[in-house]
Design goal:
Length: 298
């Protein structure tokens, strides 16, 4: 009996998340090709065994699976359209970026135009779980895609939650999950900002809630980032603002008013204007100090 062929995966988008995912695909022994608009962000992956392509079509040519992890829907559509000469009928497309609900129609239209098998597959997790291959994948797509997708999803995630066969179900769930993540991030930032303003030791705040119903690991993780001032992004302010606006738009379309999410989007925007757009989203903290009176949350 012939040995099963190793799947070949084209990864378009090698930012914080895409690079980690591509690296884990290489470690799993898959044939990986990568492309990024800024080639320098893809080149380090060559040391992990990935082949670096100069164009989306170059990455996709001959691949069995296409994985997109770009900033937003526009960037995703542009890259996939650029890959059109290399797209073949039956190619499995795992669309992993948080692109929002309005993007579903144009994304699935491109997939239908090229007869691709489209799976809506956004991720839960940031840089650390991505590096460790411990993301949670939220997936919606045809039943027949689950087997071929498994080697890729198993390499990048700790588990895959299939939520239906119709694309969009996973993206809707992702927006709900992200609404909570962003709310906790802002809540942590504002609590530490208030502590700073009132002269309260933030450690006293953390000690006061320790072990109770108000305590949680994510609060402590973001509090540690703020207090250290080490803002290397696991999820950047600008990306968080983009996601917050997608959440607000989805709520509006559904007739749901999301005051906290809307205010949070503006808070991220303010932090970005203060020069923190590329920092970790915990830099929401600095939006409380428009005159930059606080260096960190310690």
């Amino acid at each position: 009996m012939a040995a099963e062929r190793t799947p070949s995966v084209a990864v378009l988008g090698t930012g914080i998340m895409g690079a980690a995912m591509a690296r884990n695909l290489c470690r799993a022994g898959l044939d990986v090709r990568v492309w990024n608009r800024t080639r320098a962000r893809s080149e380090p992956l060559a040391a992990d065994g990935a082949r670096v392509a100069d164009s989306p079509a170059g990455a996709v040519d001959g691949a069995d699976i296409l994985l997109t992890m770009l900033f937003d829907a526009d960037a995703t559509l542009e890259a996939v359209r650029a890959a059109a000469p290399a797209l073949r009928p039956g190619l499995l497309w795992l669309q992993c970026a948080t692109a929002g609900l309005d993007a579903l129609e144009p994304l699935t239209a491109v997939a239908a135009e090229h007869r691709l098998v489209f799976v809506d597959a956004p991720m839960l997790g940031t840089k650390q779980p991505a590096d460790a291959g411990q993301l949670t994948v939220l997936a919606a797509g045809p039943e027949e895609a689950r087997g071929p997708a498994a080697p890729v999803l198993d390499a990048i995630g700790a588990r895959t939650v299939w939520v239906g066969e119709v694309p969009g179900a996973a993206s809707r769930l992702k927006l709900v999950c992200n609404s909570w993540v962003l709310a906790v991030t802002h809540g942590t930032a504002e609590a530490l900002a208030l502590a700073h303003g009132l002269g309260v030791d933030p450690q006293d705040f953390l000690d006061a809630i320790e072990g109770g119903g108000l305590d949680m690991g994510y609060l402590r993780a973001k509090a540690a980032v703020i207090r250290s001032g080490e803002l290397a992004p696991s999820f950047s302010v600008d990306t968080a603002e983009k996601d917050a606006r997608l959440i607000v738009a989805a709520g509006e379309a559904a007739g749901v008013r999301l005051d906290v999410a809307a205010a949070g989007a503006e808070r991220f925007h303010r932090a970005s204007e203060l020069g923190h757009g590329g920092d970790d989203m915990a830099a929401s903290y600095y939006a409380s100090f428009p005159d930059d009176t606080a260096s960190n949350g310690s």
